[in-house]
């Protein structure tokens, strides 16, 4: 996701508009990166919209605004291809900002972001194990080691079941959070079965039915169901 200079004027105008109903404040602390332009973007469905631009001065910068529910946003800096995703909620959020690797920044104050980060760390561990098994399967096949291939394929299947159970438990534990709805709606969850996806959707309370993330997941579920009909 690349920042386009054509948006700079829009960003400056947005920053000049004072909102007396601001319910979040993002304080960015960064040593040795003064005079660095930093921008805040909001993800709506699959499109990024600019909502703020400022400059880090005296080792800090502040973004203020209003959100109805936890919302995924992104922080970019000038001339840096990396970016920092953060779930913003009605709270004061402190970020120890890593300007060389924004994605390695540290957040305090957002419970929603903690839920999101905890999921990604656990999910990444499963993905790393899966990739390691895939490499071992390839080596076993190259060496015509049939017994080892069968054993590793069994380990791979067990890992996929374990990962799916983790995903189910995660949704069940955080079912009242918009963060769970977001994670369910994106492709991290789309390697699960139709039945498992339906199970997770059914966990959400009724008031979530108009949530954009839940709608996205439901649309994908409908797509799976339609494909299943054609294949049968």
Q: Descriptors for this entry?
A:
globular; 4-stranded mixed beta sheet; 6 helices; alpha+beta; single chain; 4-stranded antiparallel beta sheet; disordered N terminus; 232 residues
Write up this protein.
With 232 residues, the protein is of the alpha+beta class. The protein has helices spanning 8-16, 111-142, 146-173, 178-185, 194-203, 212-231, and strands at 24-29, 36-44, 47-56, 60-65, 71-77, 84-88, 92-96, 106-108. The protein has a four-stranded mixed sheet, covered by helices on one side. Strands 3-2-5-6 form a four-stranded antiparallel sheet. Helix 5 runs antiparallel to helix 6 (212-231). The longest helix is centred in the middle third of the chain and has 32 residues, at 111-142. The two termini are 39 Å apart. Mean pLDDT is 82; it is low at 1-19.
For the biggest β-sheet, the strand order reads 4-1-7-8
Helical segment count: 6
Distance from first to last alpha carbon: 39 Å
How many β strands by DSSP? Answer: 8
- Helix content class: 40-55%
**Rg (CA only):** 21 Å
* Helix and strand element order: HEEEEEEEEHHHHH
Oligomer: single chain
Q: How much β-strand is present in the residues?
A: 15-25%
Summarize the SSE layout with pairings:
Layout: H1 8-16, E1 24-29, E2 36-44, E3 47-56, E4 60-65, E5 71-77, E6 84-88, E7 92-96, E8 106-108, H2 111-142, H3 146-173, H4 178-185, H5 194-203, H6 212-231
Parallel strand pairs: 1-7
Antiparallel strand pairs: 1-4, 2-3, 2-5, 5-6, 7-8
Helix pairs in contact: 2-3, 2-4, 3-5, 4-6, 5-6
Describe the structure in brief.
With 232 residues, this protein is α+β, with helices and mostly antiparallel strands.
């Amino acid at each position: 996701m690349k920042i386009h200079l054509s948006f700079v004027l829009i960003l400056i105008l947005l920053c000049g508009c004072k909102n007396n109903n601001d319910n979040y404040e993002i304080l960015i602390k960064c040593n040795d990166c003064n005079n660095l332009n930093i921008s805040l973007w909001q993800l709506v469905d699959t499109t990024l919209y600019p909502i703020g631009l400022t400059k880090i001065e005296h080792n800090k910068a502040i973004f203020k605004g209003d959100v109805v529910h936890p919302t995924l946003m992104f922080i970019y800096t000038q001339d840096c291809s990396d970016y920092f995703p953060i779930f913003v909620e009605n709270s004061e959020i402190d970020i120890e900002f890593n300007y060389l690797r924004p994605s390695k920044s540290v957040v305090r104050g957002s419970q929603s972001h903690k839920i999101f980060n905890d999921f990604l760390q656990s999910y990444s561990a499963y993905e790393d194990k899966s990739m390691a098994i895939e490499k071992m399967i390839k080596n076993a096949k190259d060496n015509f080691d049939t017994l080892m291939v069968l054993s590793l394929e069994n380990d791979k299947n067990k890992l996929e079941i374990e990962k799916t159970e983790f995903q189910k438990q995660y949704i069940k534990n955080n079912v009242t959070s918009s963060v769970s709805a977001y994670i369910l709606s994106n492709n991290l969850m789309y390697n699960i079965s139709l039945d498992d996806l339906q199970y997770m959707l059914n966990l959400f309370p009724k008031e979530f039915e108009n949530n954009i993330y839940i709608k996205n997941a439901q649309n994908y579920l409908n797509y799976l169901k339609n494909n299943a009909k054609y294949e049968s």
